[in-house]
């Protein structure tokens, strides 16, 4: 992709955040409290009314008085009109549909930043692919990802993430936009690696939760993180990612975060599955998204299509969609053909 916008600079024009879930709200608040005007698009009309009245996202991030620099919009096209940067924070299964709502209003020069971690089920594309299909191949695009729970970001806990763009000037612009003394942003060119690391760790977090729900200990969790990373790298490298990216913040960093913290929604879903609860019952009680649930199917089919071995993803998929027993899944993983560890790792790295 050509460096067409090396002139990129940030003025005081408001930026848009599309999606007022916990992450979109946290990112908007983060920018707002550092003085940037932010237009936040809200999908639910009831939530829009509450935000306008109380400046609190009672649906997805309750208990936070949002920055006075935020304004709230029910029309996505209105929120993005004139904005130099559009931050997409809609879940991956509606990302394409939401892009369609704002397509005609976004200027051709706008920088799209995805804060979404996922793979589209129907096309097996990450969000970069979806943006290019919907808006055209020449759009400036970046992905912001890494270990970052929304709640901790609003609490100003030190958070370190990565922004990837195929255009260095775009990555630098997004780095400048978000960086503060408590929110540190690294840059990279490796969009594929950053997007796959973020999407695939959600499936591993489901797996770690399942182990916890089964009452298994710390040993299997450490094994799952390590072998999970090997699987992520195997698929990532096959799709052109730099393996070093997968051991960075957006890969290993986010994998460790979500496989070891009950703050992770994916981990929480896994715990309930491991404890014997049925997936439809778990999802019926959740307002928030656990991207790994849909992404397990996308990753499983992507791996099948490419002939990449992903045994943990396969077992998580079978538990979610084929009603397999979590305990049996552990048995299958533990009794696979015995291997040399270095040979097995060398396949992926
Ligand atoms: N929450 C976090 O801590 C966090 C951190 C980093 C990245 N992310 C990623 O951010 C993305 C958004 O997740 P979230 O955690 O903000 O969501 P959330 O679970 O907090 O909220 C659900 C979101 O989905 C939206 N939504 C539901 N149905 C919709 C529809 N039909 N059309 C448009 N929007 C619809 C809701 O409006 C809301 O914004 C995900 O890809 C997630 O992996 C989340
Ligand atoms: O709550 P989760 O599992 O969706 O994880 C949220 C973020 O991706 C953590 O970086």
How would you summarize the topology of this molecule?
Layout: E1 15-18, H1 22-33, E2 38-41, H2 45-54, E3 70-73, H3 76-80, E4 85-88, H4 95-102, E5 111-114, H5 127-135, E6 140-145, H6 150-154, E7 159-164, H7 168-178, E8 183-188, H8 191-213, H9 218-238, H10 243-246, H11 249-260, H12 265-274, H13 279-284, H14 291-306, H15 311-321, H16 326-334, H17 341-348
Parallel strand pairs: 1-2, 1-4, 2-3, 4-5, 5-6, 7-8
Antiparallel strand pairs: 6-7
Helix pairs in contact: 4-5, 8-9, 8-11, 8-12, 8-14, 9-11, 9-17, 14-15, 15-16
The structure holds nicotinamide-adenine-dinucleotide and SN-glycerol-3-phosphate (G3P).
Keywords: Cytoplasm, Lipid biosynthesis, Lipid metabolism, NAD, NADP, Nucleotide-binding, Oxidoreductase, Phospholipid biosynthesis, Phospholipid metabolism
Pathway: Membrane lipid metabolism; glycerophospholipid metabolism
Catalytic activity: sn-glycerol 3-phosphate + NADP(+) = dihydroxyacetone phosphate + NADPH + H(+); sn-glycerol 3-phosphate + NAD(+) = dihydroxyacetone phosphate + NADH + H(+)
């Amino acid at each position: 992709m050509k460096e067409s916008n090396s002139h990129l600079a940030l003025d005081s024009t408001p930026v848009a955040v599309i999606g007022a879930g916990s992450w979109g709200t946290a990112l908007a608040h983060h920018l707002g409290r550092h003085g940037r005007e932010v237009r936040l698009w809200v999908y639910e009309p009831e939530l829009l009314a509450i935000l306008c009245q109380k400046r609190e996202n009672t649906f997805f991030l309750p208990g936070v008085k949002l920055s006075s620099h935020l304004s709230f919009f029910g029309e996505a096209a209105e929120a993005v009109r004139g904005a130099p940067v559009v931050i997409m924070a809609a879940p991956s299964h509606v990302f394409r549909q939401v892009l369609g709502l704002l397509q005609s209003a976004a200027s051709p020069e706008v920088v799209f930043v995805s804060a979404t971690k996922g793979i589209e089920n129907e096309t097996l594309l990450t969000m970069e692919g979806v943006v290019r299909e919907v808006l055209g191949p020449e759009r400036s695009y970046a992905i912001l990802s890494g270990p970052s729970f929304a709640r901790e970001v609003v609490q100003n806990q030190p958070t370190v993430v990565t922004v990837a763009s195929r255009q260095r000037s775009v990555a630098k612009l997004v780095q400048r936009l978000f960086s503060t003394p408590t929110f540190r942003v690294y840059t990279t060119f490796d969009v594929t690696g950053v997007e796959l690391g973020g999407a695939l760790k959600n499936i591993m977090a489901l797996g770690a939760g399942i182990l916890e729900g089964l009452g298994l200990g710390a040993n299997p969790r450490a094994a799952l993180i390590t072998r999970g990373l090997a699987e992520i790298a195997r698929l990532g490298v096959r799709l052109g990612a730099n393996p070093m990216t997968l051991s960075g913040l957006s890969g290993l960093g986010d994998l460790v975060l979500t496989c070891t913290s009950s703050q992770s929604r994916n981990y929480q879903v896994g715990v309930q599955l491991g404890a014997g609860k049925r997936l439809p019952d778990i999802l019926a009680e959740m307002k928030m998204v656990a991207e790994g649930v849909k992404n397990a199917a996308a990753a499983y089919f992507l791996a099948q299509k490419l002939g990449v071995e992903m045994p943990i993803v396969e077992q998580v998929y079978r538990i979610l969609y084929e009603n397999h027993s979590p305990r049996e899944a552990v048995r299958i993983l533990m009794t696979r053909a015995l291997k040399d560890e270095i040979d097995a790792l060398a396949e992926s790295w």
